[in-house]
Amino acid sequence: MYNVPDYALDNSAWKYASSTAIADTADDVIKAAVTGKCNYLCGLQISNSAADVGTVVVIKDGSTVVWAGYVAKAGGHIEVTFNVPIKGTAATALNVACITTSAEVYVSAQGYTI
């Protein structure tokens, strides 16, 4: 898991972990929009427990894709540390979505909001 950088204030740090598998293509909110503030994504861990389906997973700034990665079937795993955090647009949620249905994707993410 990624540690939020020292320059992010303790009360601005957030973390997200999906409690159930993402198995559809709908957007799931990683970090809700905050009026007048930007969300920053620092770390991301994605795993897929589907035996037969791999998928591309996208991170969105609202509805705009800002990162994409492929997670393989049967235990596929991605772990990313963004040395330069992905900065979202002010007052806009960070979302995650699968491109393929029937995957069983679990996502954890860490960042901060300022």
Keywords:
single chain; 114 residues; mainly beta; four-stranded antiparallel β-sheet
Structural write-up:
The structure is a single chain. Strands 1-8-3-6 form a 4-stranded antiparallel beta sheet, with no helix packed on it. Strands 2-7-4-5 form a 4-stranded antiparallel beta sheet, with no helix packed on it. The protein is elongated and about 40 Å long. The chain is mainly β and 114 residues long. Strand 4 and strand 5 form a beta hairpin. It contains no helices and 8 strands. It has one domain. The two termini are 21 Å apart.
List the SSEs and their pairings.
Elements (H helix, E strand, L loop, with lengths): L12 E5 L10 E4 L7 E10 L6 E7 L2 E8 L4 E12 L6 E5 L6 E9 L1
Antiparallel strand pairs: 1-8, 2-7, 3-6, 3-8, 4-5, 4-7
Question: Quick recap of the structure?
Answer:
The chain is mainly β. It is 0% helix and 53% strand. The protein has no helices and 8 strands.
